[in-house]
Input
Amino acid sequence: MGKDANGKYQVPAVVGAISILNELSGTGESGATQSELVQATGLSKSTMHNLLSTLEGHGFVRRDDNTRQYRLGPALIPLGNEATRQVKLVRSTLDRVAPLAGEHGLSFAVAQPIDSKQLRIISRYYPPGDVHVGITVGSSYGPMDGALGKVLLAAMDEADAKRVVKGRKLPAHTRATITSPESLIDEVAEVRARGWSVSHGELNENNAVAAGIWGTDGELELVLLALGFPTQLDGDRLTEVGELLRDTADEVMATAGASAPGR
Output
């Protein structure tokens, strides 16, 4: 057995199965072949064959005999439904975010913390039409990744956030990425004060705004994200959408009897 970043033991076969499911969650209806999954996950052909056979036998993946494409299986549906029922914040959030794409002509997404330093996209909503900024369900983001990363940092204890920022060389995703630790720390302080973060092309060429949702225990539960091309989402529009996300987050928290730290 191996260990994760926190030193906890992990069963390789379980980790492999999780990596397959995570990969398939981002492929949609197109699915993926066994060879594509091998390439994406780094698992050996024999391990992949055995894991897919096991997952298929239990209904967690399904295989199209004609195309040889694998997709997520029906056994995941009741598990997902039960998890959704257990987390009222998720349902309340998705209900509020779903209409926003059509109303505002932007892409919206909801992310959930995996741990204190990583978020995973669990749902996305696109505006009508073919042209929009895309984001993959299942994709993960860390504390140095644009608007989402700033929310993660703002959710940390201030001293912990400073240690994270100053403990590494900040990656330059684009020419606009904030690579000065002091500048990033100052911006995270602004995020805490106003309740939303912004990325001016700092992770890729597009702009983004994000706001956090906290649970009754004071822990970050979900993050709302809005994405747009610079021509769609810039200037005063960034503030408008930032306040929209913050107000939406406050509405969700109010239904659960929670509130953001310091507000």
In short: The CA atoms of residues 221 and 255 lie 14 Å apart. The first helix runs from residue 12 to 25.
